[in-house]
Write a structure and sequence with these properties.
Number of helices: 8
Strand order of the largest sheet: 4-5-3-1-12
Bound molecules: alpha-D-galactopyranose
Order of helices and strands: EEEEHEHHHEEEHHHHEEEE
Shape: globular
Structural class: alpha+beta
Strand content: 15-25%
Number of strands: 12
Distance between the termini: 18 Å
Length: 326
């Protein structure tokens, strides 16, 4: 009997605000976008799981199989087809989307109920951290899994609680613009910032920077790193309030404030990113900021209704979260 293929989709994400807070037990406000990765699993008779479209010995596939088996889910032999309409390397979390789509498709092929979102997000982040060698927090995976149409999600990375927030912008438009910066620095810089935060927490005698109230006494640049984390957490709740009050001007102001903090205190911007931010402002953006890990990737900007977006910008809307399609 020929069994039907299983297909799973996982979206990329945009983080509205709350950057470099996830690994500090902080707050983030991402949303899943409509673009993403689709994985189709065609069941085979043999035991092998093959993915002709991925490099041989692909760490994501290896990692997904290892982590699922460790969770007691044993995918059957199948051939996986991976397709994506998500630009990779543009800071829209294509690798998190790949991990989520792979694991959902493999769960479906195994006839197993996928782990609950937080557990699956953790499993997927282990694929990236332990198998693919890319350190990440939980922001990207949770955003992909918890997406809802027309809504962002406020994540508290300390309690792992999530709450949907209506993304009603009164005709204003959110768009991303790829800075095109080469990403060599990204991994190194990201890991350096994480280490600085760990060190700052240690010096302050707190478990994580979520508990920090002032880093002013710390040696430079640690004090500035702490100030970014504290103020960025505050900006997440201010952005939630701005959305609730239907106040796009306030949201734009917060995006700008986040950018200044990421540029000056957290120091994760590069000239290409500054140019992309300037291009958005020149096109009339109410606010624009670097998004994601930094040192490249895309910038996010909020435009008034009917603004002409800068060349290359992609409009983003909040779409549904990851799911098994059939
Ligand atoms: C990358 C990581 C996320 C998060 C952001 C910064 O996108 O994958 O976990 O740390 O950087 O907010």
């Amino acid at each position: 009997m020929k069994r039907h293929p299983v297909r799973a989709f996982a979206p990329g994400r945009v983080n509205l605000i709350g950057e470099h807070t996830d690994y500090n037990d902080g707050l983030c406000l991402p949303f899943a976008i409509e673009l993403g990765v689709t994985v189709t699993a065609e069941l085979q008779d043999g035991p092998e799981v093959a993915a002709p479209g991925l490099p041989r010995d692909d760490p994501y596939l290896r990692g997904a199989l290892a982590e699922l088996r460790a969770a007691g889910i044993d995918p059957p032999g199948c051939v996986l087809e991976v397709t994506s309409d998500l630009p990779s390397g543009a800071g829209l979390s294509s690798s998190a989307a790949l991990c989520v789509a792979l694991t959902l498709a493999l769960c479906g092929a195994a006839g197993a109920t996928p782990p609950a979102p937080v557990e699956l997000a953790r499993l997927c982040s282990r694929i990236e951290n332990e198998h693919a060698g890319a350190r990440t927090g939980l922001l990207d995976q949770l955003a992909s899994l918890l997406g809802e149409e027309g809504r962002a999600v406020r994540l508290d990375l300390r309690t792992l609680e999530s709450a949907p927030v209506e993304l009603e912008l009164g005709g204003h438009v959110l768009a991303v613009l790829d800075s095109g910066a080469p990403r060599e620095l990204a991994g190194t810089g990201y890991n350096e910032r994480r280490e600085e935060c760990r060190r700052a927490a240690e010096l302050l005698g707190v478990e994580s920077l979520r508990d920090a109230s002032d880093g002013a006494g710390l040696p430079d640049p640690l004090g500035r790193r702490v100030r970014h984390v504290i103020t960025e957490n505050e900006r997440v709740d201010a952005a939630v309030a701005a959305l609730e009050e239907r106040d796009p001007e306030a949201l734009g102001w917060l995006l700008d404030a986040s950018h200044r903090s990421l540029r000056d205190d957290y120091e994760v911007s590069v000239p290409e990113v500054e140019r992309a931010v300037a291009a958005c402002r020149d096109a009339g953006a109410l606010g624009a900021r670097i998004m994601g890990g930094g040192f490249g990737g895309s910038v996010l900007a909020l435009f008034p209704p009917a603004a002409a977006l800068p060349a290359g910008a992609i409009r983003v809307r909040a779409g549904r979260g990851a799911r098994i399609l059939c």
